[in-house]
Design goal:
The protein is mainly alpha-helical and 196 residues long. It folds into two domains: 21-79, Helix Hairpins (Orthogonal Bundle); 91-191, minor pseudopilin epsh fold. It is 49% helix and 12% strand. α1 (21-43) runs antiparallel to α3 (62-79) and α5 (104-117) runs antiparallel to α7. The radius of gyration is 16 Å and the shape is globular. The termini are far apart. The structure holds manganese (III) ion.
Length: 196
């Protein structure tokens, strides 16, 4: 199989109680896994099977784009979370957040609002757009790479991300994830790849 489900960077119960083991069993074990399985079916025997995921994402449309992008989005999302996360960024990322949002609190407010107001399935993002930090939201499998933006952090706001733990209360899921799980070290690492 050319595309593989990457290992989670923590155990299935490591994010509980903010995100339960049951949610990760479904979200990682079923949903993310299904995108990988579908991507392998769609690329079997085709040149895309040997291409990097990012290359498929920027050129593909339809089902191939949806599954390739969702494999990328979920792998990225798992890395955006960590047990004992939350807190605040430091260093150059913290300076850039203050410069472009005014304060870290404003940045977090915008991220929560983007996730809460994304109509239907999608993602809330902190991105670098030509060196300027922005909060954006995308629908379904859509992602910053399509807009030449560098993703720094994301929160999955598809119902499968929160319905077991929070039912319909998406804003409560967003608040808890932002407060307790976001991995600002990962965001800072992504920010070092941004060219000015
Ligand atoms: Mn998801």
């Amino acid at each position: 199989m050319p595309f593989e489900l990457p290992s989670l960077p923590y155990s299935l119960d490591a994010l509980a109680p903010t995100i339960s083991k049951e949610t990760l069993e479904f979200h990682y074990g079923k949903h993310h896994n299904a995108y990988v399985t579908n991507l392998n079916k769609l690329t079997e025997g085709k040149p895309e099977a040997g291409k990097p995921l990012e290359e498929i994402i920027v050129t593909a449309e339809g089902g191939l784009f949806n599954n390739a992008a969702q494999v990328w989005n979920h792998t990225f999302y798992w890395n955006c979370l960590k047990p004992g996360g939350g807190g605040a960024p430091s260093g150059t990322l913290a300076e850039a957040i203050n410069r472009d949002f005014g304060s870290f609190d404003k940045c977090k407010e915008e991220l929560a609002a983007a996730g809460a107001t994304q109509f239907g399935s999608g993602w809330a993002w902190l991105v670098s757009d030509n060196g300027k930090l922005k909060v954006t939201k995308t629908a379904n499998a859509d992602l910053p790479l399509k807009y030449n933006q560098t993703a720094l952090l994301t929160v999955d706001v598809w119902e499968h991300a929160y319905y077991i733990d929070y039912r319909n209360a998406r804003p409560n899921y967003l608040a808890a994830v932002i407060d307790k799980l976001l991995n600002w070290d990962f965001a800072a690492e992504n920010f070092t790849k941004v060219s000015y």
